[in-house]
Amino acid sequence: MSFLEWFLESDNPGPVGKLEVDVPEPDDEQPPKKWMIWLAIILGIVLGEVSLMWVFNDWPFLNISQILFRLGGLSLYVLTSYRLSARPDYSNLGLLGGVVDNPFRSSDNFNRWLVYLHVLLVPGKFMAYSLVMGWFLFQSIYKRPNR
């Protein structure tokens, strides 16, 4: 943070986004389209497969502790990305639409980090949503009839 940011931001702070935990789903008037749901499930499955390929890479040369450590890290990443939501304020990302850092504001740096965090969490969100939606689809398909 430069001296100009520290000195000038205190008088007129810019809008800053939020980092939230367990954000409720928005109440949209229109439910998502079926093709969007299936695309999210397929994309999450593909990302999950790529992640599992990373976990089991060098399979014969890995100890069980290394595999469990990688699986634990992957599970922690998916759980964290499912629970965290980074919501930056896109009106305060810097100059030229976020391309250039604003030398007079430090709040745009925080918003820029929220954008980076949001991009980092998106693959984990797809994996988590595909697991959740797959579980609901599995329950609805293989539901036992009431006796």
Structural features, described:
- This protein is mainly alpha-helical and 147 residues long.
- It has one domain (3-9, 32-141).
- Helix content is 57%, strand content 5%.
- The chain is built from 4 helices and 2 strands; from the N terminus they run H-E-H-H-E-H.
- It has helices at residues 3-9, 34-55, 64-83, 107-141; strands at residues 18-21, 84-87.
- The chain has a two-stranded antiparallel ribbon.
- The model has no long low-confidence stretch (mean pLDDT 80).
Task: Please work out how many helical segments DSSP would assign.
Answer: 4
Uncertain runs with pLDDT below 50, 5 residues or more?
none
Query: How many strands appear in the DSSP assignment?
Result: 2
Rg calc: 21 Å
Kindly give the count of domains.
1
- Order the strands across the largest sheet as they lie in space: 1-2
Share of residues in strands: 5-15%
On the 0 to 100 scale, the average pLDDT is: 80
In short, what is this structure?
The chain is mainly alpha-helical and 147 residues long. It has four helices and two strands.
Key terms for this structure?
147 residues, mainly alpha, two-stranded antiparallel ribbon, 4 helices, 57% helix, extended
Secondary structure: elements and pairs:
Elements: H1 3-9, E1 18-21, H2 34-55, H3 64-83, E2 84-87, H4 107-141
Antiparallel strand pairs: 1-2
Helix pairs in contact: 2-3, 2-4, 3-4
